[in-house]
């Protein structure tokens, strides 16, 4: 779980839109990359998963990533706050399809289309 250490979800609407404050001092940026930190793609994917769990009120596992497009590098120094916009669709078998966009103002950093399923107990 990255929430609380790597990022903080700020108060926002309940329609799948989340404003996220990134912690540019997190130890991961010491390696990725020193002096010019970039948010790792796997962290963006994990944040998206955690936010989807919040929407669904259920622990989930990523089962399939249909597409992920990184359009701009996301620096926690240049963009301390970004917006995650998630559109979710629940399926009868409890799987959840998510289309997510990570953005700030008019700049889109990442687009994700993935499916998550309930985590095994």
Describe this structure in words.
- This protein has one domain: Hotdog Thioesterase (Thiol Ester Dehydrase, Chain A, Roll), CATH 3.10.129.10.
- The protein is built from one helix and six strands.
- The protein has one helix spanning 41-56; strands spanning 7-10, 17-22, 60-70, 81-90, 96-104, 107-118.
- The protein has a six-stranded antiparallel β-sheet, covered by helices on one side.
- Strand 5 (96-104) and strand 6 (107-118) form a beta hairpin.
Q: Which key terms come to mind for this protein?
A:
single chain, 121 residues, mainly beta, Thiol Ester Dehydrase, Chain A, six-stranded antiparallel sheet, globular
What are the SSEs and their pairings?
Layout: E1 7-10, E2 17-22, H1 41-56, E3 60-70, E4 81-90, E5 96-104, E6 107-118
Antiparallel strand pairs: 1-2, 2-4, 3-6, 4-5, 5-6
Gist of the model:
The chain is mainly beta and 121 residues long. The chain has one helix spanning 41-56, and strands at 7-10, 17-22, 60-70, 81-90, 96-104, 107-118. The longest helix has 16 residues, at 41-56.
């Amino acid at each position: 779980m990255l929430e609380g250490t790597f990022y903080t979800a700020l108060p926002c609407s309940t329609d799948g839109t989340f404003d996220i404050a990134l912690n540019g001092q997190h130890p991961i940026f010491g390696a990725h990359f020193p002096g010019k930190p970039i948010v790792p793609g796997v962290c963006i994917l994990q944040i998206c998963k955690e936010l989807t769990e919040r929407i669904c009120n259920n622990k989930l596992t990523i089962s399939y990533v249909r597409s992920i497009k990184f359009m701009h590098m996301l620096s926690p120094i240049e963009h301390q706050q970004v917006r995650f916009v998630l559109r979710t669709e629940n399926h009868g078998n409890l799987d959840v399809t998510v289309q997510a966009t990570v953005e700030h103002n008019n700049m889109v950093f990442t687009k994700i289309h993935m499916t998550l399923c309930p985590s095994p107990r």
